Amino acid sequence: MQFVGDSANPFMTELLLKDEVYRVMGCAFEVYNDLGCGFLEPVYQEALELELTAQAIPFEAQPRIRIHYKGQLLKKDYVADLIVIGQILMELKAEERLMPRDEAQLINYLKATRLRVGLLINFGAFPKLEWKRLVN
Fold first, then answer.
1. Is the CB of residue 47 less than 8 Å from the CB of residue 17?
2. Spatial separation of the C-alpha atoms in residues 5 and 132, rounded to whole Å
3. DSSP string over 87-135
4. Which of 33, 55, 70, 88 is the most exposed place for a label (fewest CB within 10 A)?
5. Residue 111: partners with Cβ closer than 8 Å, 6 or more residues away
6. What fold characterizes domain 4-135?
7. Minimal CA–CA distance to 83: which of 131, 39, 117, 43?
């Protein structure tokens, strides 16, 4: 996890987009507490979109992201699950547990979007929501 220093006090550290991530994760916990685990990812995505809307948190669902390779735009793109507040990339899973490849995927997506903060959220874990916050 990366910390961003406070210029007024170099000994104090603060998480990047701390308040925004807190609000967004509150929505994810609300969805998990209501639905539990056991559904497929699209169910959680739709429920999370409803919760974000109810909390007046702006988001873009399933935006297409263009990928560059050595300065050239690829024909293939990828579809992100959510970009929240225009600054946080959310990758949703409904798996038994998160794997290192899931983190690698999110890191690559952060690089492709040039966004700094990503949330990897696994609704398939039991008995509690599994999540990671990654900063590029």
1. no
2. 21
3. TEEEEEE-SSS--HHHHHHHHHHHHHHT-SEEEEEETT-SSS-EEEEEE
4. 70
5. 136
6. Trna Endonuclease; Chain: A, domain 1 (3.40.1350)
7. 117
pLDDT digits (tens, 9 = 90+) for 10-53: 544 578 899 999 999 999 999 999 999 999 999 999 999 999 99
Distances (CA, A) of 130 to 9, 67, 84: 33, 28, 19
Number of neighbouring beta carbons within 10 Å of residue 109: 23
What is the token pair recorded at 2? 């990366």
Distance in angstroms (rounded) separating the CA atoms of residues 53 and 62: 15
Q: If you ran DSSP here, which 8-state letter would residue 39 be given?
A: S
CA-closest candidate to residue 97, choices 133, 129, 51, 61: 129
Exposure class string for 25-49: b at 16+ Cβ within 10 A, else e: bebbebbbeeeebeeebeebbebbb
Nearest one of 110, 90, 107 to 44, comparing CA atoms? 90
Q: φ, ψ for residue 100 (rounded to 5)?
A: -55, -30
pTM, full prediction: 0.86
